[in-house]
């Protein structure tokens, strides 16, 4: 199966799931935990290692000597210092942690990039994406499977234009990442809300009422008795989702539901790392301050809090 067929298959599965839901869907986009380890620096720095590097990359440091860990950490610090002023601020550290935690997203984009960048110019135009994804379906107004590919393409184009900040219909890798994973970018949140409402709002009145909300999660299929979780969701809609008590969710209420303002784990961890490493208490870190506290940021044979796995040569 080629990439185009895979994407279309995925879209068809999604469309079917949306048209006839049989089980509860999780529409809510929560910020993931930085680590499944307990955050207890008195015991070890496992949580901090996972937070700073990402869980998989953190394992690669566990078999290094302290000297090797310090050397590689120094190279990472150069990447974190985005403005190259010789200091790592809390904001730069927060950005780095978020990037490290979402490495799986960037890996996903990287794996698809070559398929879409047809002319190999390091950019992906809307025409390239459209041709790879839809191809011959563009000229078929009545495909055998009955699925409306043109309608799906219109939706994709709208999202592509939103991701394309400069409006030239050509996406950089970061813009293409925002297109594929809009929930990860603040400036894409409105399109996430709009698409969600279009999926659930069956009568197209611009709102999500109680039955539409439940219908997105559960189909009775002839069953008179609802599961307990469905009854709980009805109560959640009335008590918490529908904030103004008008019997339906508008755009802002839907946004509050699917994109909640969660506790910012990356911000808290960045603040913690700066506090623990900032020797002169000026509110920012030098490379020396970070490397001096290397065991907080990364592992090594000397600290060996994790299982030693095969070493990766590149971060």
Automatic annotation (TrEMBL):
Where would I find the EF-hand domain in this sequence? 68-103, 104-139, 151-186, 188-223, 265-300
Kindly indicate where the leader peptide sits in this chain: 1-19
Per the record, the coiled-coil ranges are: none
Taxonomically, the superkingdom here is Eukaryota
What keywords is this UniProt entry annotated with? Calcium, Metal-binding, Signal
Repeat in keyword set: no
What's this protein's family per the entry?
Belongs to the CREC family.
What is the recorded name of this protein?
Calumenin isoform X2
The source organism is Mesocricetus auratus (Golden hamster)
Provide the taxonomic classification. Answer: Eukaryota, Metazoa, Chordata, Craniata, Vertebrata
